[in-house]
Amino acid sequence: MSFEWSVIANNWKFLIVQGLLGFGAFGGGTLRLAIPAIVLGFILGVIIGLCRLAHRPWIHYPAVVYVEFFRGVPLVMVIFWFWFLIPQITGQRLPEYTVALTAFVVFEAAYLGEIVRAGIQSVPRGQAEAATAGGLSYGQTMVHVVLPQAIRNMIPSLVTQFIVLFKDTSLASIIGMMDLTKAAQTVSQREIRPFEMYLFIAVVYWIFTYSMSRFSQWLEVKMSPERASI
Amino acid sequence: MPLTGFLGMQYNFQWSVLWTGGHGEWLIQGIVTTLRLSALAWILASLLGILAGALRTVPFRPLRAVATCYVEFFRNVPLLVWFFFWYFGAPQMLPRAAQDWLNAHGPEFWSAVVGLSVYHGARMSEVIRAGIQSIPKTLLEASVATGLSVGQAYRLIIIPVALRLIIPPATNESLNLLKNSSLALTIGVAELTFMTRQIETYTAKAFEALTAGTLIYLALCLGISATMAQVERYFRIPGLIVRVGRAEH
Fold first, then answer.
1. A194: which chain B residues are within 8 Å (Cβ-Cβ)?
2. How wide is the angle at C-alpha A98 spanned by C-alphas A93 and A104, nearest 5°?
3. What pTM, to 2 d.p., does this model score?
4. What is the spatial distance between Cα B167 and Cα B244, in angstroms, rounded to a whole number?
5. For residue A224, what are the contacts with CB-CB under 8 A and spacing of at least 6?
6. For B3-235, which CATH superfamily applies?
């Protein structure tokens, strides 16, 4: 068995510029999918998390069902659902990119919503009570008092979830979106060099996720009090 | 069945496709394959996870470093990439005899078992490490002070206590393994998602097929978490209030 590492050098432009960044004839792109998915997923996650904490049952229970449903179903299944439903609802076929983005935002918001809920619950109740007693409305209390403290508490779990989301974007290749995984598949089929190709993209993914994970560890140490443990 | 309007689109529901024409058998076979794949991978992932998780906390640097490299590399790369790597890339590195054995015994299934175990072993080890680290350092010190070696202290005291503490996050991680086994469809393992797609392809009844697959996954996940909640209650350590962080999906 001999290695042919030149296959990477010969195709790096297609893999990185098209696959990772998403500039090129095929659209798509791992980063071009991951970044909006993280931002939009987080916004929807905050809404879901707040709804889950609401006292009114008609706001609370739909959020519970949403979270429990999406946490009990594989992401591939959710992607296939949107692949089928979006043309049914809109009456036209949308690009793979749009389908993948929608599926990721809806799916990840369930997990992010749980993190937001835990973060908000970690803020002592007295804070919200004091803010309300001081004359702030519910919205003002959330935006100016509770959420800033909650977000600080949930940053480590959020970053961990963003790493998961980043890795999950590889699933967009299943419906044919041209991301890093799909690009590697394409090259690997043409050059018949699967070992080199998949190891190479594993390293590319790893560089991104490992940097994010180190960043999260650094934040965690910075934000939590010292603890004596093994 | 009557036509049902769906925001202007017409969709003809025909739920009977799920049990006629042998499609019911496909679903059953899919469930069996999903469970077999997940169970095998779960056993291997737990063993790898306990080993790597424990090694990452031992007071001996080279062992910690080996375990850290394994965990940090494997859990930070998408599972799909690992599946492709183990299925398309890795077999060519094996000796001829091993390749022949693999081709005779279904390379898709065994690549999926290896891919899932190695990936989830790395993730499971993080849960186990968190469990061990939530145990006060004094317990290890006390065990060693009574005359146990570090190895014995881990085997007899630390790991049994940690395993009882981590039941909720380990259940969560096991459910992730079950859900992630669905990715095996990409390398042609005929598991539940694969069979759902197959019914969809043969009958063009996507709504019915996807509903069946979704409900089966939901039932499996909810069933396992309800069972594990009972198990946790049974194994709870009296008087100990330690919460181990919830793992991500």
1. 84-85, 88-89, 92
2. 130
3. 0.87
4. 9
5. none
6. MetI-like (1.10.3720.10)
